[in-house]
Specification:
The protein is α+β, with helices and mostly antiparallel strands. It contains two helices and five strands. The chain has one domain. The N and C termini lie far apart (46 Å).
Length: 100
Amino acid sequence: MGFSIRSSTVRYTEWRKWVVTEGVNAPDRADWSAAGLFATELYRESIPIPYSFDDSENVNFAKNATYAPVLATLKAALAKQYNVASPPQPQPPPPPQRLR
């Protein structure tokens, strides 16, 4: 599954493995470990309006050392956005309601 974040000039996406869990209270989730990351994308998006994806997303700058500071900033912002430090935990089911 892809998770993206944008700035005014770039779009950063991490492609992560998706973990499917069994059970009613076990939600599916992204694998935010290092092993769960299988691709990254960093595209410049400073093309004027009217916007065309064909004109801007042709070169992936994720492995370009010049963009390393931008990539690090957006990577941290993406982790914060998706609360990676404390991933959501399954919630217990509500207690049964008593019939009156």
